[in-house]
Design a protein that fits this description.
Blueprint: E1 2-7, E2 13-19, E3 22-25, H1 26-32, H2 44-50, H3 55-66, E4 72-73, E5 79-80, E6 88-92, H4 96-101, E7 111-115, E8 120-121, E9 127-128, E10 136-137, E11 140-146, E12 162-169, E13 172-173, H5 174-177, H6 194-198, E14 203-211, H7 212-215, E15 222-228, E16 239-245, H8 253-261, E17 271-273, E18 295-300, E19 304-311, H9 322-331
Parallel strand pairs: 6-17, 8-14, 9-19
Antiparallel strand pairs: 1-2, 1-5, 1-14, 2-3, 3-4, 6-7, 10-13, 11-12, 11-17, 12-14, 15-16, 15-18, 18-19
Helix pairs in contact: 1-3
Bound molecules: zinc ion (ZN).
Residues 90, 139, 141, 170, 275-276 line the site of zinc ion (ZN).
Length: 337
């Protein structure tokens, strides 16, 4: 299944199931396909808390499809990020290619950091470049959504705790992070990564959550990042900047869940973003940073892509820029087809 979230008439996110470009709402599943009434108005995190392996939802969906139930066209809904996670745990330096591009040794254990729900935005929503950075960068990543609560789980059963996957962009401020190529001589970063990784809008997630059974093995997925610059010699064209495979991960999904849950209990709807391959802007020569007007896109094979315009701290973008065009299409969904 592919699970999305959309805003209801009260502007609250609720979960729905994608089928053929339409969304079957939980409310309609409760009304006509036997889903428990209590699940009808939940968001994705709430749904996972009640139905952690999604078995009830899957049964109801099968019934709905047998009955020929048709959902609401996606274009008629205000789709948002698939979920607002309780916890977001990031993993640094987890792709061999990304470690090598920095000339670092392969780490002997995962390096964990945190982001919070203030960072989450959906497909198409602006990523704000705050006034606190001049060195904004993208990181294409596989996001893992926890279903069943995971506390001190062994490697062998760790995957039983995965509900599904999302494409994610671990947007990072390289100067705050302390990356040398982003710093003027003598300047220093924050010393830790909270502002660098956790600023508002620094985590596009989407476009939907693909359930674990539908995606299959997460260890052999192509993972790509694109940048459409607003200025410079390549202005306006979409350029592939990251092109890796999740097979390059140093610590795989099961290892990460086992490692994290040894000390941090993972709850339904928590998200682990699992690291990025090479090609990020800060390690290009010369470095390439994101500026207002740019557009970034992250795609994970089998999941889809999440595309976001970069806007300035006051919300503005240069007129005519790729970001301005994307935002105009978003405000006028009929015109965008
Ligand atoms: Zn990252």
């Amino acid at each position: 299944m592919r699970i999305v979230a959309y805003l209801d008439e009260l502007d609250l996110p609720v979960a729905g199931i994608l089928a053929d470009g339409r969304v079957i709402t939980l409310a309609s599943l409760a009304e006509r396909a036997g889903l428990r009434e209590e699940l009808a108005l939940l968001d994705v995190r709430g749904l996972l808390a009640e139905d952690d392996d999604l078995a009830e939802t899957r049964t109801a969906m099968a019934q709905a499809l047998r009955d020929g139930m048709r959902g609401v066209p996606v274009a008629q809904l205000r789709i948002v990020a698939p979920l607002e996670p309780g916890k977001i745990i990031g993993v640094g330096w987890n792709y061999r290619s990304h470690v090598l591009e920095q000339g670092m040794p392969i780490p002997d254990r995962p390096l964990l950091f945190a982001k919070f729900s203030n960072a989450v935005v959906g497909d198409g929503a602006p990523v704000i470049r705050p006034a606190t950075t001049q060195a904004l960068d993208l990181e294409a990543e596989l996001g893992v959504v926890i279903g069943r609560r995971a506390r001190r789980v062994p490697l062998e059963t760790a995957m039983d705790h995965v509900a599904g996957y999302v494409a994610s962009n671990d947007v990072s401020a390289r100067d705050l992070q302390g990356s040398k190529p982003a710093l003027a001589p003598g300047a220093r970063g924050d010393g830790q990564w909270l502002r660098a990784k956790g600023s508002d809008t620094f985590l596009p997630l989407g476009p939907s959550m693909v359930t674990a059974d539908e995606l299959g093995d997460p260890a052999a997925l192509r993972l790509r990042g694109w940048h459409t610059p607003a200025a410079g010699p390549d202005a306006g064209g979409e350029h592939l900047v990251q092109d890796g495979t999740t097979g390059d991960m140093i610590f795989g999904v099961a290892e990460l869940i086992a490692f994290i849950s040894a000390s941090i209990t993972l709850e339904p709807g928590d998200v682990v973003i699992t690291g990025t391959p090479s090609g990020v802007g800060v390690f290009r020569v010369p470095p390439v940073f994101l500026i207002p007007g740019d557009v970034v896109r992250v795609e994970v094979e089998g999941i889809g892509s999440v595309t976001n315009p970069i806007v300035d701290s006051d919300g503005s973008v240069p007129p005519g820029s790729p970001a301005a065009r994307l935002l105009a299409g978003r405000d006028d969904p009929a015109g965008a087809g």
